[in-house]
Amino acid sequence: MKKLLYLLLLLPLFPLNRLKAQGMGFGQRATVEERVSRITQKLDSAFAIDSGQLVALDTALKVLFRRQEERRQEMMNSGETPDRETIMAEMKKFSDIQDDIISTILTKEEFLIWKEKIQPTMRPRGMGGPGGPGGPGGGGGGQRRERNNQ
Questions:
Q1: Close Cβ partners of 36 (under 8 Å, ≥ 6 residues apart)
Q2: Which of 48, 57, 58, 76 has its CA 20 to 30 A from that of 135?
Q3: How many Å is the maximal CA-CA distance in the chain?
């Protein structure tokens, strides 16, 4: 009887622990410094960038990412929820500027390697959607077998 009582008391705690382990459903956004560091490390390891160019790249990306965060906050705090297309268009502007900054340091061939092979590996993996857990081609599995009731 005691075991059953303990089990009933502990049972409601398990879903909370699962949510906590998953970040309560909200992803933590990387800081500007973390994002810049990740990019500069990847570029340096792949293409052996000159230290002077790395410092300039670091500074330019920090300025860009801080402005991007400011713009994101402006859009979210404007009082009305912006539509997805507006947000995507605004973030595309920053992505294009980032590409321009990086292309000034790399050769055309290196930049193509960056865009086609390295940069896609740096994108955060979201839940759902193509390639995501539970999405088509994703690693989520989620297929259930039907029981044969015979």
A1: 58, 61, 62, 65
A2: 76
A3: 73
Residues 73-108: tens digit of each pLDDT: 888 888 888 888 988 998 899 999 999 999 999 999
Q: Give the pTM.
A: 0.64
Residues 6+ apart with CB under 8 A from 142: 133, 134
What burial letters (b/e) apply to 30-58, b meaning 16+ CB within 10 Å? eebeebbeebbeebeeebebeeebeeebe
Among left, alpha and beta (phi > 0; psi -120 to 50; other), residue 98 is alpha
Rg (Cα) of the chain, in Å, rounded? Answer: 22
Length in residues, the chain: 150
